[in-house]
Design a protein that fits this description.
heterodimer; A: 6 helices; 0% strand; B: 0% strand
Chain lengths: 216, 138
């Protein structure tokens, strides 16, 4: 009818909004939380840079005690653990919890196998860091020795606590895979968000490594 | 949603520009580089970039505009599945209590932290597996 031709009506044949694939709310929440974690580590970086600018002579003396090649190996292990974690996520996304072949057929690994490998690599990183701490304390750098010690242990220590938390999260996700009869989207989601966290912690470590060991 | 992503990208560029200007200003005035502002501005840029990247990726995978971005959508088109929330779980508050004990222990005495840690282990396992055992096993 022409008399109200310009009025849109929703009663008849309204265009249906297409079905969109919204991101999972758990994933969105994790990303927002990781955003706040960026700013938490921003505070730690700011502490480090401030102390470095106020006592440069301390930095000159103490950074020479760092074992850079040792830490580089540790860094590479952590970065590679992000790769294995991502393969675990690919397995979780095809809802494959366990390996479908023999244990040495890596291509047929499920999420559980990849996450166990990631766990082992993360654990090696933490053990390596503990050993590094022991060495440095023996050389006289401690949390309470001077400003350099405080900055070093606060930044790397808080990162180490985050890695430890990630290790616990991996165990809980692996446990979920064992607890269910059918590995479904809910379990895959927890695997995916733990991987987000793990990649984040990995990227933070790359930043810390560049600042503490390369930039000095 | 595209607008959200663009806004975060703009914020990221602005923070990056501020960081450069801040560092340059100190250098031009011949002052000692003040690191806190520089780090805060640079990482604010990273923060906004992070969210911009994520919203952009999400938008690309939607396969269409969200109902809230369409003038012709109905309210129930934008009524998404919000996920699973336990209506009566006691585990989160147990977990929070365990965390409180751990930190109280840091201030008062390490033995309280150890009790807190023990409760923490029980609470985190109880919380994560609440819907994975007994009546809810699946």
């Amino acid at each position: 009818m022409p008399h109200n031709g310009t009025v849109t009506t929703t009663t008849a044949s309204r265009p249906v909004a297409p079905v969109v694939h919204r991101p999972n709310v758990v994933a969105v929440g994790t990303i927002v939380w990781l955003g706040s974690e960026v700013m938490f580590f921003a505070g730690l970086f700011a502490i480090y840079f401030t102390l470095r600018s106020t006592s440069p002579e301390l930095w000159e003396a103490q950074t020479s005690l760092l074992n850079v090649p040792y830490s580089l190996v540790n860094t590479i292990i952590l970065v590679l653990s992000s790769v294995t974690c991502q393969f675990g996520v690919f397995a979780a996304e095809r809802l494959q919890a366990r390996a479908t072949g023999k244990w040495y057929q890596v291509g047929k690994w499920g999420m559980v196998e990849w996450f166990f490998l990631t766990y082992a690599m993360g654990a090696v990183f933490i053990v390596g860091q503990v050993y590094e701490y022991v060495t440095l304390v023996n050389e006289g750098i401690a949390l309470n020795s001077d400003a350099y010690g405080s900055a070093f242990y606060l930044t790397t220590g808080f990162h180490g606590l985050h890695v430890t938390g990630g290790l616990i999260a991996f165990l809980l996700v692996i446990g979920r895979a064992f607890a269910v009869k059918n590995f479904g989207h809910k379990e895959a989601t927890s695997a995916i968000v733990v991987s987000y966290y793990w990649h984040f912690v990995d990227v933070v470590w790359i930043g810390l490594f560049l600042v503490i060991y390369v930039l000095k | 949603m595209k607008a959200n992503a663009v806004l975060f990208w703009i914020l990221s560029v602005i923070f990056a520009a501020f960081a450069v200007a801040y560092g340059w200003w100190h250098a031009a005035e011949g002052l000692v580089q003040e690191p806190v502002g520089l780090v805060a501005l640079s990482l604010s840029s990273v923060f906004a970039m992070f969210l911009g990247f994520y919203t952009q990726r999400s938008y690309n995978s939607f396969g269409g505009e969200l109902p809230e971005d369409r003038l012709d959508a109905e309210i129930d088109d934008g009524d998404p599945e919000l996920g699973h929330f336990s209506p009566w779980s006691w585990w989160p508050i147990t977990l929070a209590g365990a965390g409180a004990l751990v930190f109280l222990g840091l201030a008062v005495g390490a033995w309280i932290s150890m009790i807190g840690f023990t409760i923490f282990v029980v609470a985190i396992v109880g919380w994560v597996y609440e819907y994975y055992r007994g009546y809810f096993a699946h």
